[in-house]
Amino acid sequence: MVGIVLVSHSRKIVEGIYELASQMTGGKVPIGIAGGTQDGRLGTDATEIMEEIKKVDEGEGVVVLVDIGSAVMSAQMAIELLGEEYEGKVKIADAPLVEGAIAASVEASIGSDFDKVLLVAEEAKKLNKL
Amino acid sequence: MVITKNGVLKIVDKIVEVIKENKEYLTQLDAAIGDADHGINLDRGFDAVKQKLTTLPETTDIGTILKTIGMTLVSTVGGASGPLYGTAFMRAGQVVQGKNELSEEDIVKIFEAALDGIKQRGKAEAGDKTMIDSIEPAYKALKDSLENNIALPEALNRAANAAKEGMEYTKNISARKGRASYLGERSIGHLDPGATSAYLMIKSFSDVVNLS
Predict the structure, then answer these.
(1) Are the Cβ atoms of B78 and A41 closer than 8 angstroms?
(2) What is the CA radius of gyration of chain B?
(3) Could you give the angle at the alpha carbon of A94 between the alpha carbons of A92 and A98, nearest 5°?
(4) What is the complex's ipTM, to 2 decimals?
(5) What is the pLDDT of residues B108-132, one digit of tens each?
(6) Which one of A120, B12, B88, B120 has the fewest beta carbons within 10 angstroms of its own beta carbon?
């Protein structure tokens, strides 16, 4: 199954989205979370993101969802740190974090492949709420 | 003139000290146009660097020292300056892998690799009101000076002065990257915190070499 990693400056944000996405997918999808710094401040940590990607990787690829600013740079750095072995298998979705995470995890839970999960996550930004 | 491994460690110590001294100042600058954490974030990162370096074996080469600094910043800073400075130090480490002293040519290479790394990571250019506005002129001044046979201490002094001018220039322009870009024109009149911390680091480098 395709893995998902959620990245936010706030630990609480990713914990909340994790809770929501896990409930909607019956806990079937491997979802990693990286949020806040090791000493409990707001921030992102590329090494934590890298570890979470490794943790959820089942060989079918990992889609990373991020919030804002340094989350993007830290996620890019994490992918670079993973090296050639992961090249093309891990991508950051250009998507809103909450909507993208839900869409991606539901899509992953029905067994879709990496490209499809990534596409569905990115389509979440076009979602009309009203 | 060469810089020994011990010299590199002295420069790092100086950077740690100067960032700590300017922690509040950098945070105040960031409060005006960012999220008010630049000084705090960098200070935490460099504190961790200081700790981490004490655990490295005596035989560690300069390349590995620089890469270790980069990785430590990446995993402890938290804000955008983590991946940016982290990349800079890691790239700098790559170009002097295995070396136990740095030639003038190596020092130019380190600056170039660090600058390229930051540009690539942040997708920014000079004039965007970022740390690049102090690092790029410093790199150019250093390279030009050394090519004109100016001694390293004076070349670094010129680099630090160029970094300072670049930093001051960020006051007159509006931000196109990061949180400050949301403010647009309203960011004019404020120094960029990243350009300021970069200047402080380059000045530390120059000061240590000029004092030794």
Answers:
(1) yes
(2) 16
(3) 95
(4) 0.88
(5) 999 999 999 999 999 999 999 999 9
(6) B120
